[in-house]
Amino acid sequence: MPNEDSSPTGPKGLVFDIKRFAVHDGPGIRTSVFLKGCPLSCTWCHNPESISAEPQISFVAERCIGCGRCVEVCRSGARRLEQGRLVYDRSKCTACGECARVCPTAASEIVGTWRTLDEVWAEVSADRVFYERSGGGVTISGGEPLAQFEFTLALARRIRENSLHLCLDTCGYAPEEQLREIAPLVDLFLYDIKETDPARHQQHTGVSNQQILANLRLLDRLGRPVILRCPVIPGINLREGYLEGLAHLYDSLNHCLAVHLMPYHTHTQAKYARLGIAPAQCWGREPDPGEVEAWYEQLAALGVNAEQP
Question: Is the pLDDT score of 8 beyond 60?
Fold first, then answer.
């Protein structure tokens, strides 16, 4: 994905969130930088705001008080009031963000803003003392951070220059040369494995897992530490042989530290309506804690170092 600005001041990244004091995105206390844009189209995606490589407007009608401030600043004519109620025509919206800027109730919010390297670095470096005390650091996530490779590489270099621990959360669907270039800068790869079966991976993500697995094995040959992060969706990818397939993949790697299972949850379904996009093609079932525990026990019996993230 191209950067909005490749000026001499450096690349910009399209960021949809920076989460401080994160504890589930790698070791210790971390700051996680979430970049927009993803080359996969997972049928169960629970982070729809991460898919598009463009800024978006999230609109929650229940929060709108009909004040009309957004109508006044909208330059594309996408908003109007009818009998005191806001009518929002997304087909005219350019996602400029002016509506979000003036909305007093956060009914309208911009999802994705272009940030400079210096701006992002200023935010992630603010908590350096917590990283050092907890063994934490910075995690670059998405979306798919390699889809914004120029910015991700620049941020990784800045983090390495300042001796902070870096995790890269990636699905691995990227050109091999990108993995080779960024690998020396990354302390730990959090590597998504959506499906081990090639046909089912194509069916549920829209792409083959051939490049993903090839890049995983490349990182292993390069001696880079990896944790496999594996979504588990009952009724979709949880099938006979799925956990065995993960165990086989884990066993084939020399530098895989652990497998993290990521049980499906449904609390983000409302995001689709807020973004004005079609809902996920597959709604999975949320597993109960007993089921999750059984999955970990099964992986442990197969010789896998399976850990709760």
Answer: no
Q: CA 176, 181, 184, 185 torsion: positive or negative?
A: negative
- pLDDT attached to residue 2: 46
C-alpha–C-alpha distance, residues 189 and 228, integer Å: 8
Asked if 28 and 137 count as a contact pair (C-beta separation under 8 A), the reply is yes
Amino acid identity of residue 65, one-letter, is I
Beta strands in 196-297 (DSSP E): 226-232, 256-263
Under a CB-based contact definition with an 8 Å cutoff, are residues 183 and 163 in contact?
no
Does residue 252 surpass a pLDDT of 70? yes
198/173 Cα distance (integer angstroms): 14
Q: Are 97 and 55 in contact (CB under 8 A)?
A: yes
**Residue 296 contacts residue 308 (beta carbons within 8 Å):** yes
User: Which residues, listed in sequence order, are joined to residue 227 by a DSSP beta bridge?
Assistant: 190, 258
Is the CB of residue 145 less than 8 Å from the CB of residue 152? Answer: yes
CA distance 57 to 78: 12
Assign 208 to helix, strand or coil.
coil
Burial class (CB in 10 A: 0-12, 13-18, 19+), 3: middle
The DSSP symbol for 279 reads P
- Which pair of tokens denotes residue 51? 């898919």
Distance CA 256, CA 263 (A): 20
Report the run of H or E that residue 106 belongs to, with start and end. Answer: none
Which pLDDT value is given to residue 25?
94
Q: What is the amino acid identity at position 178?
A: Q
**Using CB atoms within 10 A of its CB, is residue 213 exposed (0-12), middle (13-18) or buried (19+)?**
middle
pLDDT tens digits, 75-104? 999 999 999 999 999 999 999 999 999 999
